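Anyone up for a design puzzle?
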């Protein structure tokens, strides 16, 4: 007779970027998950790493769903509500596949690294070869498993590439402590030290950031 392990079940069925982002977070950390959906990552971090994890989510239906399952999730908007948190309130602030959908991505990143020691960010990579090919061959906005809505229905207003994100981090003074590119089924690109190739073959980018310290 086999027994069901809820922790393994949740990890196996988590979205790929959430599972990989969880690997970047230290056990026992204070974590804020922005755009947390139904609280899947929060639950995983609590169960497997003993984190004090909580979240904010703009979709009220998702908030209700998360709270119904006992998740500490509040209704909130990344563009406006992060300013209410005090400096250094968290060890990690997470933003998964939401950066491209906020109105002011630079301001959101700035707030994340004000209220958190580190930021963990994932986003779909608009530089992926399939996106480029569809634009070139059809002249229309691409539809891929990652970019899966027509242009007139997508919430994405600031699509970017992995190279774009590296440039933004350098410009705004964020240290990239760790990064990787992956596809939607979890295979990481083999070009970990080659951002140009990762930008071409990675469907999504994942980054662990911190601010440059006062000492440089």
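Challenge accepted. My sequence:
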């Amino acid at each position: 007779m086999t027994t069901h392990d809820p922790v393994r079940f949740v990890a196996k069925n988590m979205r790929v970027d959430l599972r990989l982002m969880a690997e970047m977070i230290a056990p026992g950390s204070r974590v804020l998950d922005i755009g947390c959906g139904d609280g899947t990552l929060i639950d995983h971090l609590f169960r497997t790493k003993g984190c004090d994890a909580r979240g904010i989510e703009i979709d009220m239906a998702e908030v209700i769903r998360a709270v119904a399952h006992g998740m500490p999730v509040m209704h909130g908007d990344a563009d406006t509500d992060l300013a209410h948190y005090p400096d250094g309130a968290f060890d990690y602030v997470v933003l998964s596949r939401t950066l491209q959908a906020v109105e002011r991505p630079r301001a959101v990143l700035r707030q994340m690294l004000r209220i958190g020691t580190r930021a963990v960010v994932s986003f779909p990579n608009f530089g992926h070869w399939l996106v480029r090919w569809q634009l070139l061959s059809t002249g229309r906005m691409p539809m891929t498993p990652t970019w899966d809505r027509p242009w007139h229905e997508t919430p994405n207003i600031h699509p970017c590439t992995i190279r774009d994100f590296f440039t933004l981090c350098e410009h705004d003074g964020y240290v990239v402590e760790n990064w990787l590119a992956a596809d939607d089924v979890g295979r990481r690109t083999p070009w970990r030290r080659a951002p140009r190739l990762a930008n071409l073959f990675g469907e999504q980018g994942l980054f662990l950031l911190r601010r440059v310290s006062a000492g440089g």
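A detail worth pointing out: The two ends are 58 Å apart (CA to CA).
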